[in-house]
Amino acid sequence: MKSHDAAVITMLREDPxxxxxxxxxxxxxxxxxxxxxxxxxxxxxxxxxxGWNGNSC
Length: 57
What we know:
Blueprint: H1 4-14, H2 16-28, H3 35-47
Helix pairs in contact: 1-2, 2-3
């Protein structure tokens, strides 16, 4: 069974457009409880997903 991190990274590799929405959502939730750590986790997932380049922004 894949860890959550590995599953998210795999999804980002398979659907690069998902990365934009994923980061936007995490950014929009920065002010919520746990939002800062969630944002940095999302950012790490995107950085660790080779092939994602953010050109769809």
